[in-house]
Amino acid sequence: MNASSVERAVYFLGNDRVLNFGIAAFESFRRTNPDLPAYLLPFNDDLARTRELCARYRIQIVEDPSLKILHETAEEFWDEKHRDHAMLKKFYAFFGPAKLFLYTDCDVLFLEDLHPLFDKFDRAGLQFLSFDSCLEYVYKAGAFRDELVSSGVTRGFNAGVFLARNASTTLPEVQAFFKTHKAIRREFHDTRDQAMLNYFVDFHRWKHLNFAELDPAYCETNNGRFCPVVHKGDAWVLDDKFSRYHGKRFCILHWNGIKLPGVLPNHLLYRRDRHRPESFSTRVSLDWQNLWKGRAALSQRVSDYVGIQWQRVAKRFKR
């Protein structure tokens, strides 16, 4: 493990399996943050093409024995061996080289320079900043969750994107914590890392806000399903008058839980950064794969769009 040597940085977690998302994430990251240090936490050894991308986009691949220990910590916590437990490697960022860090999965797009975000976080003296709430996918419904909510302890955040400080914990502390808190597993929604990170943050009562609480100009969710996100002035905002998030800014767009190939919400933003480094023939091939695989989803989106437009027309006639 490294002593802190970088003021601020971004950590990705990925491998070749998520390469289509990864290319778009890396391309958008370097377009908006050309000089910010970045690291990749390898999900596993499937990294042949990922290594090429990391070299192209100046992203350093972390090779540290603590990554294997974190994977094993999750396996021991759940009493099972499973590839998904490698997601706990994101805890490395809490004792990695960056004093302030943004962690993100690869299914994201960066829409803004991150330095103003880091500045706001640092000035507020926070330990943790989340970007989306998904309480029902963290803790099971019941008395335990109700108590955490009523006491203001939990926000039930999505663990795919967050901002935090290092030196908040250590590897031995993480190991000891999950070794001695196995009983809490029955309260978790599933066996993924999301509930583990939420409970760790909640238990230690870290000073934690949602990004919209830190800056109300921003949307309280970064979910890529909200669309269309469009460029207005100097910001990317949601342009949907039927949404309570209308006009709110987006800093990072996160397609949490959506698989590729398929037709994505805000797919034009994805195509812009996914296709930029590709040849014309590869672009056409990728578009065809996504269109064919996502034809059912596309039909539903067209139907939804027609319905929304009809509501708008009907509303005008009522006035």
TrEMBL record:
One Pfam family recorded for the sequence: Nucleotid_trans
Domain Nucleotide-diphospho-sugar transferase: 100-237
Name recorded for this polypeptide: Nucleotide-diphospho-sugar transferase domain-containing protein
